[in-house]
Amino acid sequence: MNNHLLALLMSLLLSGAAIADPVEGRWWTEDGEAIVEIRLLDEGLAGRIIWLLEPRHPESHERAGQPLLDVENPEPEIRERPVLGLRILEGFERRREGDWRGGEVYDPENGRTYRARLRAVDEGAGLNLRGYVGTPMLGRTSHWKRLEGDIPSDRGQGIDDHDGKGEQ
């Protein structure tokens, strides 16, 4: 029986199934106002917002004090969904370790979806997200930093505090 267990462990290690890609994990967005969790799912790499510094609409908004909703979405029927827990990255295919292409990034601030690439940098401590229209030359790169430690509990709001936990 020990030989079977050893063989199983070796096959997992050799297949790479036991080793996470450097882009997986929890990431501070460039502006420090959100944390996005990126995971490999059956349908590919995906990421969702799991923490927001300002989880409610500002005082200047008609929904002041209410949970931040996806009000800029071009599809009226889903504008009531919360931004906290929202999937904003999907469809990425692995080119090589730490380099994912062919995906999309959704920006809830303007309701637009862009083609995107993800690349781990700084030995896995950083992540470059390039969102673009048409060609990567017509885009912008955002640098995210890996979250070290726990999600902040002294400010903002995390997904565990939210009624609609949602799914990745």
Automatic annotation (TrEMBL):
The keyword Signal applies. Residues 147-168 are annotated as: Disordered. It comes from the Bacteria. Keywords: Signal. InterPro entries: DUF2147. Transmembrane segments: none annotated. Gene3D superfamilies: 2.40.128.520. Residues 1-20 form the signal peptide. Residues 25-146 form the DUF2147 domain. This is DUF2147 domain-containing protein. It comes from Natronospira bacteriovora.
